[in-house]
């Protein structure tokens, strides 16, 4: 969102776009209700919002470890023996990926319990916990401190890395969804692709900003923004999405869905 917040393009874009900030799951709800025209949506929303199109070029994905999507379990209890999972439901797509993974791990019926993202409280109520976003990053930062405090040995599974290991596919979290009521306009995609590229060109500024917003080191934030997250909706990510939707339908996690036959990838 660099160009939408910074000069020299923020003023021009403000004449054409009205920006509201919210969670991706809320963006999906706004698109579904017709309250928004474009939204950064979890890809699972594509299977449940009729007619939703994908704005080409941009994504939030990971091709290896992502660090901000974790399954944390006790070392003495294998995944196949977990009886319950406390889940931060901030990302519908991450929960869908997790359910598919549990099918592959041989524990498809394990119940997910919706809870706030507090690792200690989650493990008090369930055998394992799914952490998403900042809470996951901070849990990794505090891993050694927690062990010293509790003496409890935990296994921290990176869900994107597990997905890659099991399927050979990238973990695609979100894309820009565009309402079927909005006319196709290449300028819209160009605006978002250009903003993405300008953001990547200003990583130092972003690292400086976010290291003061979160109790996470600059090194961690820089690595996260430059190594863990992949922003280009390339052919590999599109294949990853196709694989996700195929497996989600096969396991009953999501309704059957096929990506629209439009040009989505950029280099």
Describe the structure.
This protein has two domains: 143 residues, D-Maltodextrin-Binding Protein, domain 2; 99 residues, D-Maltodextrin-Binding Protein, domain 2. It has a five-stranded mixed sheet with strand order 5-4-6-3-7. A four-stranded antiparallel sheet has the order 1-8-2-9. Helices cover 43% and strands 18% of the residues. The longest helix is centred in the last third of the chain and has 16 residues. The model has no long low-confidence stretch (mean pLDDT 94). By secondary structure, it is of the alpha+beta class. Strand 4, helix 4 and strand 5 form a beta-alpha-beta unit. The chain has twelve helices and nine strands.
Radius of gyration: 19 Å
Question: How many DSSP E strands?
Answer: 9
Q: What does the main sheet amount to?
A: 5 strands, mixed
User: What average pLDDT do the residues reach?
Assistant: 94
Q: At the first level of CATH, what is the class of the largest domain?
A: Alpha Beta
| N/C terminus separation | 19 Å
β-strand percent reads 15-25%
Number of domains: 2
Instruction: Provide the CATH topology of the largest domain.
Output: D-Maltodextrin-Binding Protein, domain 2
Write the H/E string, N to C. HHHEEEEHEHEHHEHEHHHEH
The unreliable regions are none
Q: Please report the number of helical segments.
A: 12
Q: What portion of residues is helical?
A: 40-55%
What spatial order of strands do you see in the largest sheet?
5-4-6-3-7
| Shape descriptor | globular
CATH architecture of the largest domain: 3-Layer(aba) Sandwich
Structural class: alpha+beta
Oligomerization category of the chains in this entry:
single chain
CATH superfamily of the largest domain: Periplasmic binding protein-like II
């Amino acid at each position: 969102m660099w160009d939408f917040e910074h000069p020299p393009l923020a003023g021009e874009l403000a004449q054409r776009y009205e920006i509201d900030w919210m969670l991706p799951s809320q963006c999906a709800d706004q698109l579904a209700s017709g309250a928004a025209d474009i939204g950064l949506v979890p890809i699972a929303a594509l299977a449940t919002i009729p007619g939703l199109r994908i704005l080409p070029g941009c994504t939030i994905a990971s091709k290896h470890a992502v660090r901000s999507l974790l399954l944390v379990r006790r070392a003495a209890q294998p995944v196949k023996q977990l009886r319950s999972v406390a889940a931060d439901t901030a990302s519908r797509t991450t929960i869908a990926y997790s359910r598919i993974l549990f099918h592959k791990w041989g524990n498809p019926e394990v119940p997910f319990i919706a809870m706030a993202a507090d690792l200690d409280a989650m493990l008090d109520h369930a055998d394992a916990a799914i952490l998403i976003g900042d809470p996951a990053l901070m849990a990794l930062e505090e891993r050694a401190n927690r062990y010293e405090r509790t003496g409890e040995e935990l296994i921290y599974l990176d869900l994107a890395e597990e997905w890659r290991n099991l399927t050979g596919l990238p973990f695609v979290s979100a894309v820009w969804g565009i309402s079927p009521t909005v006319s196709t306009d290449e300028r819209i995609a160009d605006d978002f692709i250009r903003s993405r590229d300008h953001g990547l060109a200003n990583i130092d500024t972003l690292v400086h900003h976010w290291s003061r917003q979160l109790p996470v080191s600059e090194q961690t934030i820089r690595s996260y923004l430059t190594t863990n997250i992949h922003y280009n909706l390339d052919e590999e990510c599109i294949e990853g999405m196709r694989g996700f939707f195929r497996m989600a339908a096969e396991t009953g996690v999501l309704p059957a869905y096929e990506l629209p036959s439009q040009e989505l990838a950029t280099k």
